[in-house]
Amino acid sequence: MHGRKSSTNLLYSLDLNVGIINGWMPEIEPPFRPREKLIEKQKYFQSVHKHTYLKGPMDKITSIAIPLALAGTSLFLIGRGIYNMAHGIGKKE
């Protein structure tokens, strides 16, 4: 059996990869925020009567302002391109 892994060695190496050694499990890490704060935020967001994507304080910027800026820029560039084509500006000769 030299050179081959037995099934128990294979299971033991799998347990090492997961972090379990002989029945020992690592401690559970503490939560990022206290449970009370999470419950408070959850109650706030469930009570606000707005669309889901507009409930946060900065959501108006990401959901409204950025798409409007992209749409406005694209319309301006399309309009400038049509104007330049109509007047022959930037044409290679």
Summarize the structure in short.
The protein has 93 residues and is mainly α. The protein contains three helices and no strands.
Query: Low-confidence runs (pLDDT<50, min 5 residues)?
Result: 10-16
Overall shape: it is elongated
Order of helices and strands: HHH
Question: What is the typical, i.e. mean, pLDDT?
Answer: 77
Gyration radius, in Å? 30 Å
The figure for the number of domains is: 1
Largest pleated sheet: none
Tally the helices: what do you get?
Answer: 3
The quaternary organization reads as single chain
Q: Assign the structural class, choosing from mainly alpha, mainly beta, alpha/beta, alpha+beta, or little secondary structure.
A: mainly alpha
Distance between the termini: 81 Å
Which bin fits the share of residues in helices? 55-70%
| Relative strand content | under 5%
Q: How many E-type strands?
A: 0
